[in-house]
Amino acid sequence: RLEEALASLRREPEFGFCDGLRGLAVLWVCADHAVLTTGWTLGLMGFKVVGEIKNAWWPVAIPSSGATGVDIFLVLSGFLIGGSLYREVSKKGRIEVGKFVLRRFFRIYPALLSTLLLTMASDAALGEPPACPGSRWYMNTFLFKNLWDSGMCMGHTWSVSLELQLYMATPLLFMLASWVSTLTSGRLTVSRCVVALAAFCWVACAVQRLWYVFTMGFEVLEARALYFYMRPQFRLSTYAAGVIAGVLGAQRKERSDSEASLGGRRATLWLVLAFAVVASTWFVGCDANAHENSRGVAWYRRAFPTVLKLHIGLLRPLLGAAVAGIIMLCATGRAPRTARVLGSPMWRPLAGLSYSMYLLQFVGMQLLDKPFLRWFGSAFSSVPLWLGILVCYIGIALFVLGAMAVALLNYVLVEYPGMEVGRWLVAKLSQHGLLGEQPAQADGKALRYSSCSRPPVLDLEMGAPPSTEEAAAGATTRTPSPHSAASPSSVASWGGKSSGPEDAKVVESLQEDARDDDENEGQGQKTQLSPNSQGGGCSGGARRGYHSVQQGSD
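RE: above sequence
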């Protein structure tokens, strides 16, 4: 299993460019926390150089705006989850919520719980004041950390809570879209309703942010900075932009790749504007908090108070749209050079370790960064500005290296085995029909299925399913193939039976289906849905709607 876990860090995912974005995001977040840690540690020793550096702004402008990395994570999550659910609905005509929840549970909880234990152990071993377990440690377990102030115990896991809340809301978004499509008698497809609802969420979040900023004023924003920073109603826009990119990107990949050659100049212009929006966060950050750049924020408030309020209200939603635009251009082949850079193999190990790195960054800090800062503080009585800048960047490098070392152990021993257990459990429960789901409605009509053991698959863009007569005509003389993906799905969700040598095929196919779902989150190999692997014993009209979802070439 050790070799398999290490090999998973080198596999090429379906969307390789996501690895580059994920790697950049975790490095950016760690760099921000490293600068803050340097300031805290040296500040306790009486040094004020880090405060002088932050006031000077330019030396640490990029690492100090690392909160942008969280927004990149949110966009990536929306893109991968939204695209995965869209492909599942297109392929099966429904969302298997039980499987979805189990996979998310085993993707998130094993590493999260091991982080809680390692944080407690490291504090005890190093004689640090124990932050964990705090009086509200259970908020780390139940992932409500972004909703209430829960103390210093793993405070950075607020974003994990936020992501899981958004994960759980995404299937509901698709179900609501199906209901809206039903009200329109199928004139609006489910995919278009999903995009429209996600766009509405994006606009609503932007309006909510603007209302809050203009109503409360700067003093309240400073006093309630964490409330504005962590609550889902103020962070929803970036995830919604990712969902839109995931659905639209999956649709475009299902169409002719010739579209990728169109609109080259417009694609370049959008790419430049998107990177400009991301770079604009270097100035004072999305929320213009005083801790990021007190001198710059103070000047900004005095000179352009109304512009600053618009900046705070709109920059985070615009950042989400910008990152989603970069992802869309890479996914559809319109930004081949950017996709090649972001999809370089050098990003894969870092992307694979990104979740454990994020969780364990403050445990890894104890290995290299904190001992270095303590030595430095005891060796120097005063620090000029240039040396303080150098110390900040050395601290960033040591912080990242320590986080990577601890994350590698956690990935091999906990995170990867946890995902494997989740896949195995989903396969076993599905084999025994314990995760069966009722068919969802798509494009305004309930799914109708033939005598074939698997219901027909709906293409959300093509409209209604094949007629009962047409489906039955294609299934009267055929039986499901043991090599198809139809048999396990029908066993799991539609009450069909599998016997003899087909049992092994069922388990193998279900495990592969679960693995594909997790790999769509950026952890595994390419996923391919082809006509030959889906229809099994169905033919004729029951085969409609299948598409090939592959990574396009540059």
